[in-house]
Write a structure and sequence with these properties.
By secondary structure, the chain is mainly α. The protein is built from 21 helices and 4 strands. Among the domains are: 151 residues, no CATH class; 170 residues, no CATH class.
């Protein structure tokens, strides 16, 4: 399988570009995504490691050589040398729309929904306590009711992980553990650490455990393997961190473990083993071939095809500028879905919006999209989650290798790159008009990049002294 490695465009000044010829729905595109690390900065054709009679040799650091070696040993992933795209777009949107800051912060609406869904699961467990677990009635209920409600619980914990239910970190952790009762297996506190890393280090090999390993990709990159992965993906997400990046347990991990085991023991004592089997089976279906579970694949798998090489680009004239070409590669790293299944899933389909602003709660993600629609409307989006799963399994051009990876954080992306992609001169002038005001505000509220990241991701560090 061929690999195209070409220099990044970030060395040049941003230029006006357009997204107007881009497909708006990734489900209608059928080109390959499994090879073409088109955004990697290493190009063997440029003879970087050797000199010729009319050129001077280019010195490459040991760290860079290690990066090149790692990319060449995993040629089928889309290897990026830039940072993840969400930080720069977040800053661009804040400059254009300072009012977005008003959307940030917790929403108490999550709390009653958690208890409502938990009560539905416990009621279902009670009604099925005398039903044989492998009967069609039991399994249908576990799939249709339990799979849907536990997917909702997974995503409630996802919201709570970003401290978006209460202002207090401790209160959020307690609520996450209570929500965890519906799952039957300790999950909430382990998920928290890995998920914050997924945001901060999106695509970084060895850190972002949402990424499939090379071994997984090799073994499962066929129709049978992809079907197996889509059916048992909840197990992959549960077990992969232990092999890729184990985290040090905290007191909260212990509290989570003890709470769930105690709850399970009480449940079995009162209702019998079938009730616990129902909760665990529901959790399995929630991360299996379920319409709502399709978001796991839809969010970050590259369904929009590879970038052409620079030579192919020049011949076809598909992109007007290098920025057009580069933005397409960045834009397909995360893909949103705006369909009705978001009603059941805490609007997790608004995934570009969520990664841009993890501090904005699920209730306000549609408003965020409306405010910054000039940034989001041109991006690829899915029209159907179930179709994403179907296409992932059946399309030979899409597979386990269809992910963007980085060896490290990568080169900084200037927010002007996203602003330059806007077609509207009105929006562009608004960016300039508000630029000085919002920069002052950002500098005042976030003294350095680390603080800015903590506030952006709503992790625990930024409020630890206040909780």
């Amino acid at each position: 399988m061929s690999v195209h490695l070409v220099p990044t465009a970030f060395d040049s000044q941003p230029r006006k570009s357009s997204l107007r010829n881009r497909k708006s729905d990734t489900d209608t595109i059928s080109t390959s995504t499994t090879s073409s690390p088109s955004l990697s900065s290493h190009d063997p054709s440029e003879n970087e490691l050797s000199s010729s009679s009319d050129t001077e040799p280019i010195n490459i650091s040991v760290e860079k050589l290690k990066q090149i070696e790692k990319m060449e040993s995993n040629p089928d992933f889309l290897w990026m040398t830039t940072e993840e795209p969400h930080r720069s777009r977040r800053m661009a949107i804040l400059k254009a729309h300072p009012e977005v800051r008003k959307l940030m912060g917790p929403t108490l609406l999550t709390v009653p929904i958690v208890f409502l869904v938990l009560s539905i699961q416990l009621t279902s467990a009670y009604l099925l306590k005398s039903t044989y677990p492998f009967s069609w009635k039991f399994m249908l209920a576990a799939y249709a009711i339990g799979g849907t409600t536990n997917q909702n619980i997974f995503l409630a914990i996802h919201e709570i992980t970003h401290n978006l239910a209460f202002k207090s970190i401790r209160a959020n952790k307690v609520l996450a553990i209570i929500a965890n009762f519906a799952i039957g297996i300790p999950y909430a506190m382990a998920f928290k650490g890995y998920h914050i890393e997924h945001h901060k280090f999106l695509g970084e090999d060895g850190i972002d455990t949402d990424l499939p390993s090379k071994l997984e990709a090799i073994i499962l990159n066929n129709v049978f393997g992809k079907t197996f992965f889509a059916t048992f993906q909840i197990l992959f997400y549960a077990l992969r961190p232990g092999f890729i990046r184990s985290q040090k347990p905290t007191i909260w991990h212990g509290i989570n473990l003890l709470s769930i085991l105690t709850f399970d023991a009480i449940l079995v004592k009162l209702l019998g083993w079938n009730a616990l089997v129902y909760l665990v089976m529901s959790s399995f279906f929630a991360g299996s071939l379920h319409p709502c579970a399709a978001h796991f694949i839809a969010e970050h798998y590259l369904m929009n095809g590879p970038l052409p090489t620079k030579e192919e680009q020049l011949k076809s004239g598909q992109f007007q500028t290098e920025e057009d070409w580069l933005i397409r590669g960045l834009a397909q790293e995360t893909t949103s879905y705006y369909g009705w299944l978001n009603v059941l899933c805490y609007n997790v389909g608004y995934h570009n919006e969520h990664h841009d602003f993890p501090s904005v709660p699920w209730t306000k993600l549609p408003e965020l999209h409306r405010i910054a629609q000039e940034y989001y409307d041109p991006l690829p989006s899915h029209s159907s989650w179930p179709y994403v799963t179907w296409r992932f399994i059946t399309d030979n051009n899409i597979g386990m290798f269809s992910r963007a990876k980085r060896t490290e954080r990568g080169e900084k992306i200037e927010d002007e790159l996203w602003s330059s992609a806007l077609e509207s001169t009105t929006c562009a002038s608004a960016v300039t008009k508000n630029n000085d005001v919002i920069v002052d505000q950002v500098e005042e509220e976030t003294p350095n990049t680390d603080d800015e990241d903590e506030i952006a991701y709503m992790s625990d560090t930024d409020k630890s002294k206040k909780a």
